[in-house]
Amino acid sequence: MxxxxxxxxxxxxxxxxxxxxxxxxxxxxxxxxxxxxxxxxKSAQVEEQDVVAAFFSDVPSPFYSMxxxxxxxxxxxxxxxxxxxxxx
Length: 88
What we know:
The chain is mostly helical. It has helices spanning about 5-15, 20-40, 50-60, 65-75; strands at about 1-5, 45.
């Protein structure tokens, strides 16, 4: 599936900052989930909201704070998509 260029660029930079031993699996899982999110939205391309939702749906809780920090540092505005969701 095609990715929106700016989103793909930001994603690649973010992935490069993930510790090496987690990088490959994180990239694989997030790419797959982001593409599924776009498909479910009936979109022809992966957009920022798809990547953000993928990170929030698949990150293990011990890595949550690191993920939030990396999203913020790399220009992903997760709050505008309603994240983090309330856990109640």
